[in-house]
């Protein structure tokens, strides 16, 4: 069974919204972690970005975290995690 992608972002972030739309349009179940509402999510993105707050971040299975991935990058990552 494929791992459910994790999306770290913020409700006001246009790039986060675009990734949510991509997942919805492609029927991809995902978990959304709002970095403004979760200290753990905020710390996770800092850990992924050498202490800096950068989002959106997407984690698909065991693949390296992706910062603001393009639709093509998301498609490729999802294909590697069937």
TrEMBL record:
It is an enzyme of class 1 (oxidoreductase). It comes from the Bacteria. Residues 7-61 form the Glutaredoxin domain. Its EC number is 1.20.4.3. One of its GO terms (molecular function) is oxidoreductase activity. SUPFAM superfamilies: Thioredoxin-like (SSF52833). Keywords: Oxidoreductase. This is Mycoredoxin.
């Amino acid at each position: 069974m494929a791992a459910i992608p994790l999306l770290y972002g913020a409700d006001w972030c246009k790039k986060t919204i675009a990734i949510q739309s991509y997942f919805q349009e492609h029927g991809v179940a995902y978990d959304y972690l709002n970095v403004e509402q979760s200290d753990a999510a905020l710390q996770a993105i800092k850990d992924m970005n050498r202490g800096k707050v950068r989002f959106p971040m997407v984690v698909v299975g065991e693949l390296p975290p992706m910062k603001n991935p393009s639709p093509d990058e998301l498609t490729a990552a999802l294909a590697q995690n069937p």
